[in-house]
What we know:
Layout: E1 2-5, H1 12-23, E2 29-34, E3 42-48, E4 51-56, H2 62-79, H3 81-84, H4 94-118
Parallel strand pairs: 1-2, 2-4
Antiparallel strand pairs: 3-4
The structure holds zinc ion (ZN).
Amino acid sequence: MNITVSNLSSNLEELVRFTCDYLGIQPRSLEVDVLEVTGYQGMCIDLETDSFLILVKNHEGQHETLAHELVHVKQYMKQDLGSLLGTEEYETSWWEQEARSLSKQIMEKFNERNDSKKQ
Ligand SMILES: [Zn+2]
């Protein structure tokens, strides 16, 4: 897995690896970059098969946003999200609901793990 993370906060790459393990995915290539579009916290773009670009706004909640977008990567890889986009209302679609709940779970596990390392 080839991960490129531009200079957002330092342990984003660790979070990317943790989240990919958690979701059981191994994208061939993953690039995380800064998003500078208003109105969005994050974005996930499938570039080609198993190759993704994630854009995350540099904000306080960027870790959870990154986890959220990685859930979409899982959905692209395992559930063919690409062919489903537009077939359901965005806000209430199962993929958005799953991304919201899984990203919360992931952040809890990630923070637990980091807390126990410090003790
Ligand atoms: Zn989403």
